Amino acid sequence: MSKLIVNLLGGLGNQMFQYATAKALAQHKESVLFLDVEDFKHYELHRFELTDVFKLSSFELAAEKDFRDVLSWQSFQQLRKALKSPKLSWFRNEHYVVEPFFQYWSNLRGSPANAYLIGYWQSEKYFQDYEDIIRKDFTFIKPLEGLNLQLSGQMNQSDSVSLHIRRGDYVSNPETLKTHGVCSLSYYQDAVKFVSGKVANPNFYVFSDDIAWAKDHLKIDFPCEYIGHNTGAESYRDMQLMSICKHHIIANSSFSWWGAWLDGRNDKIVIAPNQWFANGTNTSDLLPHSWLVL
Fold first, then answer.
1. pLDDT tens-digit profile of 7-46?
2. What are the residues facing 125 on neighbouring strands?
3. CA torsion sign, 256 to 258 to 264 to 270?
4. What share of the chain is helix, strand, coil (3-state, %, to 5)?
5. CA-to-CA distance for 275 and 258, rounded, in angstroms?
6. What is the model's pTM?
7. Which member of 19, 181, 193, 222 has the greatest number of CB atoms within 10 A?
8. Which phi and psi angles does 170 have, rounded to 5°?
9. Angle CA(267)–CA(166)–CA(198) in degrees, nearest 5?
10. Burial status of residue 162 (CB atoms within 10 A of its CB: 0-12, 13-18, 19 or more)
11. How far apart are CA 67 and CA 226, in angstroms?
12. Rounded distance, CA 149 to CA 153, Å?
């Protein structure tokens, strides 16, 4: 049986894109899916948390033997890491598959059944043919409880709108700010105005890693709850709550991208920022066609 190994790195949203793309390709190739989580051993920003959060199915964690089976002599750990460099692209064998650019790369489907995937793969196009499988795999393991359960009840009973404000390292880290930037206050004001013009009685639920900033700057003339209690290992609960809401205003963040995507309603309104990156990266394939851009 062929083996498809995907390198995982980044926060929960990034891990979800990497897993979903690899799971879909493994289904297409009839390969066994393996997750490479080695990079998290030396990664201080985030931890591997997919298996703590979701009911993933039919995968294994990659061991050195699996790398050898796929990459042969290029599987040695230091060489494997070095080959990520664009300068060594000419040296990679055909089984070492690196995402060439941010937008959707249709040639991924032509990869060998035995392959090692490196990249972020941030487009629904990579896994839309296997959407039912991905949605099932991204079922949250733990049910909501306490305040989160109470909030979910309110969300189900109202015209709930999730609104995500991502600041954190987007603001505090100069390099991250240079790459990503932050959504402007006018973006959120315009998005709230648009949604309130389409939804009769909207109830807004504001999620942020900087609730104090959100309360000071965001002015919403509708019922509004500010949610900032899910922290640390429980941070994913915000995504779980977002997915329950009926409409969504997302940040330039894969976290709220998935919060909106996991809401399976066909009549949902999803508004996303026109500028996802501050550095001009082409994001033409990042958003599903039914989502709106402001």
1. 999 999 999 999 999 999 999 999 999 999 998 988 877 8
2. none
3. positive
4. 45, 15, 40
5. 18
6. 0.94
7. 19
8. -60, -30
9. 25
10. buried
11. 45
12. 6
